[in-house]
Amino acid sequence: MSNLGKKINTNWKPVIGITMGDYNGIGPEIILKALEDNRILQLCTPVIYASMKVLSRYRRLLNLPEYFIHQAKSIDEITHKKVNLINCFSLKEEVEPGKVTPAAGEAAFLCLEQATKDLLRGRLDAVVTCPINKKNIQNEHFQYPGHTEYFTDNTGKSESLMFMIHEQIKVAMATGHVPVKEVAQVLNEEKLRTKLQLMIESLRTDFGVLKPRIAVLGLNPHAGDEGVIGDEEIRIIRPVVKEFKRDGHLVFGPYPADGFFAQHHYKKFDAVLAMYHDQGLIPFKSIAGFEGVNFTAGLPIVRTSPDHGTAYEIAGKGIADPTSLLHALFWACDIAKIRRFEHLIEISD
Predict the structure, then answer these.
(1) Is the per-residue pLDDT at 106 higher than 50?
(2) Span 107-123, mean pLDDT?
(3) How far is CA 239 from CA 39, 176, 242, 267, 325, in A?
(4) Chain-wide mean pLDDT for the chain?
(5) DSSP for residue 64
(6) Are strands 293-297 and 161-165 parallel, antiparallel or unpaired?
(7) Residue 216 pairs with which residues in a beta bridge?
């Protein structure tokens, strides 16, 4: 046993909330499939924020295996011996797989809202969010581009890091859900410094990498070709990389994105900082496949999610793969344990 293991109770099980997402998407199906193996109870205590009526309808529709789900009125009434469910809304309409409806968006928000309250009260150790429709969920209390910004704001933070994680590759985005035409406008030295610092801190505290090696990608084709195809690399990215190197960090770049991934240079680094969403997500998903997970780093809470969307086109057909949700659950457990263990070590020291 490591020194870490000697100072903690390794049998501790985190309580993990799982939000249903849009019930006309694949969220209910992948939840039912992911939790049907009761060995998951050896790792954590799952608490689904959803509607039992919705899950029951999908179970009948898809002829999924029956297993007992304990219905709790609140987080105070859960059991650690079963999969739990907290009913967050009354079903107002028929479940219509593949259809975008206002009621499904409202339900997704109510599930997210209740899970967030329990998370911020410290009653959950982490939350795993199933996919939402970013349009039909919008309301007075949710005016965000996605989960990442919602949790960032609700934890009182001004910045967080969209961190895509997998055993083979970890990629974060300097700019998250931003239109491509605005990326160059919002990218600046301060933002780049913030994202790099969040990445370094997360690799240390959430993944145990004490001296992380980080690759920074360029914004433009060929990383600008020394200013011929854009000067952001010269004005913004390169100075920040040099600054972090002077401070003793193992930060390198900027690298042309195409050659960097094509030549598998990502294997030499603990993480990669991409400049915008698709620059990082396309290679990440190509490499990680169904095992990729979205982690919101830099926050006082732990939130992960599958790295796919609502997948309306296959909703209700019984073919949705729960692998990414399972890995999101595994990573949530691991990160919650690492954070708890570090806290206990600080107390014992």
Answers:
(1) yes
(2) 98
(3) 50, 22, 5, 24, 39
(4) 93
(5) P
(6) antiparallel
(7) 273
Tell me the percentage of the chain whose pLDDT exceeds 90.
88
Q: Identity (one letter) of the amino acid at 184?
A: A
**Cis amide leading into 254 (omega within 30):** yes
SS3 3: helix
Residue 136 corresponds to which tokens in the numbers above?
């039909």
Longest dimension (CA), the chain: 63
pLDDT at 244 over 90: yes
Terminal Cα-to-Cα distance of the chain (whole angstroms): 18
Instruction: Assign 5 a pLDDT band (cuts: 50, 70, 90).
Output: very low
**SS3 for 158?**
coil
Q: Are 293 and 324 in contact (CB under 8 A)?
A: yes
Instruction: Report pLDDT for 343.
Output: 56
The C-alpha atoms of residue 310 and residue 4 are separated, in whole angstroms, by: 39
182-192: average pLDDT: 94
What residues contact residue 263 under an 8 Å CB cut-off, 6+ apart? none
For residue 82, how many C-alpha atoms fall within 13 Å in the half-sphere facing its CB? 12
Question: How many other C-beta atoms lie within 10 A of the C-beta of residue 291?
Answer: 18
In sign, the C-alpha dihedral spanning 149, 151, 157, 160 is: negative
The b-or-e profile of 124-152 (16+ CB within 10 A means b, else e) is: bbbbbbbbbbbebbeeeebebebbbbbbb
Question: Residue range 129-134: average pLDDT?
Answer: 97
Contact yes or no for 127/16 (Cβ under 8 A): yes
Amino acid, res. 117: K
More confident residue, 1 or 284: 284
Residue 111, pLDDT score = 98
**Tokens for 245?**
């190197």
CA distance 52 to 88: 9
Distance CA 236, CA 310 (A): 36
Cα Rg for the chain, rounded, in angstroms?
Answer: 21
Q: How many CA atoms lie within 13 A of 86 on its CB side?
A: 25
Please determine, for residue 44, whether its predicted confidence score (pLDDT) is greater than 90: yes
